[in-house]
Structure formats: C-alpha cells, structure tokens
Write a structure and sequence with these properties.
Elements: E1 2-4, E2 12-17, E3 20-25, E4 36-37, E5 46-51, E6 54-63, E7 66-69, H1 71-74, E8 82-86, E9 99-107, E10 121-125, E11 152-157, E12 172-178, E13 188-192, E14 208-211, E15 214-223, E16 233-237, H2 242-249
InterPro entries: Peptidase_S1_Elastase_sf (IPR050850), Peptidase_S1_PA (IPR009003), Peptidase_S1_PA_chymotrypsin (IPR043504), Peptidase_S1A (IPR001314), Trypsin_dom (IPR001254), TRYPSIN_HIS (IPR018114), TRYPSIN_SER (IPR033116)
GO cellular component, one term: cytoplasm
Protein name: Proteinase 3
C-alpha cells in the first residue's frame, strides 16, 4: 500500500490491488516524522501552500516568480484559491518575514495520478518575490544529474509528526540518506532513515529534498506509513525535468 502526501482533508490513498493501484478518498490532515525544528528561515526557498489559511502542501522557490511543487498537490484544486506563503517559520505567528502570493498560472507535465509518475508542477506567482536573507531561490540540478546512493540530504516541511500525529506549527527538518536505486523507481529518488521512526508524512508533499545545496527531489509519496523505518520515501527526481522547468520559467 502506498500513500501520496496529499492535501489536507483530501489525502489520496493508493492501494496495490492485484498489481493495480486504486485511488481511495481519505480524510487525513496534512510533518516530518522523527525530525527536529528547523532554525528559522534556514530553508529560505521553502513555501507553504494554503487554502483558506490552512497549510496543505509545501513548495520550493526556483526563480523570483516561479514555485515548484508536486502535481498531486494541485490536483482537483482551484489554483485561484491557493495562497503561497514564503519566508515563514511558524504557520500561525504573524511574522514580518512572510510574503504572500496568489497563483497566476500552473504549468503541468503529464502527471499520472494512478502511478504518481511526473509528480511535478510549476506555479507562476502573481508577482516576483522580494528576495532577501529570509526568502531565496534554491539551486537546480543539471539535466539528468545523478545522486549516488549514500548521499546525505535534508528534507523539510510542515507535515504530520506521525501517521496519526499532530500537525506542527513550526517548520521541521530531517537528515536523510539516498538509497540504492533498486529500492526505488527510475523516475524517483528514494531516501531512508532505516531502523528509526523518521521520514516524510502527510503535508510534506511538494516540499524539497536538498543535497549539497541543490534541490534534487520533490516530496511525492510513501509506502505503508510515515517513518516506518523499513520502506523508503519517494521524491520526484528534479534533474529529469530540467527542460520542462526551464521552458516554464522562460515562457
């Protein structure tokens, strides 16, 4: 059984049934499991995607007016209702570092909701962000750049602290290790914190996997449960989508 890290109140649960994945409606709220609170604004590229003031997914600033997130985050979501918040640490506090934006355009790339392939979209914001020490663009990988097994990376988000756990107010982060490719899929990067209860969870979708200062993955889905210490976490492999990303930014 695999779960995509979908938005609050409409989590998509995918069950392997005789070799086929069937999507089932869910009702779980949309944190990093086993991580720690991040230093405020230490991930200046991370965004909170919100509906009516409630966080449902993460995203990463890749250009002054463009955000990258998971395609399943925007599925069945009216983009004109989404607010993008950058410069946040606390979701609830009135922080002077926060900048809020609307979504002007969504660039899609053939997302398959049954297989979770091509789980990436680019959002064009209604205006360029004000870049400063708290809000910055993240570095993109080269096309088809490889991330070897054993590479140390960090992921971050405001997702649940456990499968049925609490939603954090403050940004969480977790150090993870890239797994061997035979534990993953060709179009994904997988990470694990094996033998420990740590990993991504509901609400982390669309957030970044950063390795050596470069965003290599977009949080996509898990298998079984959050941070189970046995199965890896799955991220969309950003380097495979460089042409799509560049075309969106230059459109």
């Amino acid at each position: 059984m695999s779960y995509c890290m979908c938005k609050c109140m409409s989590v998509c649960v995918y069950v392997y049934n005789m070799g086929n994945m069937v999507s089932l409606p869910g009702s779980m709220h949309t944190q990093i499991v086993g991580g720690r609170e991040a230093t405020p604004n230490s991930h200046p590229y991370i965004a909170s995607l919100q509906l009516r003031g409630r966080h449902f997914c993460g995203g990463s600033l890749i250009a002054p007016q463009f955000l990258m997130t998971a395609a399943h985050c925007m599925e069945n979501t009216a983009s004109n209702l989404v607010t993008v918040v950058l410069g946040a640490h606390s979701l609830r506090a009135n922080e002077a570092t926060k900048q809020r934006f609307r979504v002007n355009q969504v660039f899609e790339n053939g997302f398959n909701p049954l297989t979770l392939q091509n789980d990436i979209v680019i959002l064009k914001l209604d205006r360029p962000v004000s870049l400063n020490g708290k809000v910055q663009v993240v570095s993109l990988p080269s096309a088809n750049e490889d991330v070897p097994a054993g590479t140390q990376c960090v992921t971050a988000g405001w997702g649940r602290l456990s499968t049925e756990g609490q939603i954090p107010d403050r940004l969480q982060e977790l150090n993870v290790t890239v797994t061997r490719q035979n534990l993953c899929r060709p179009n994904n990067i997988c990470t694990g914190v094996f033998m420990q209860q740590a990993g991504i969870c509901f609400g982390d979708s669309g957030g970044p996997l950063v390795c050596n200062g470069v965003i290599q993955g977009i949080t996509s889905f898990i298998i079984r449960s959050c941070g189970n210490g046995v199965t890896p976490d799955f991220f969309s492999r950003v380097s495979l989508f460089r042409r799509f990303i560049d075309d969106a930014i230059n459109s």
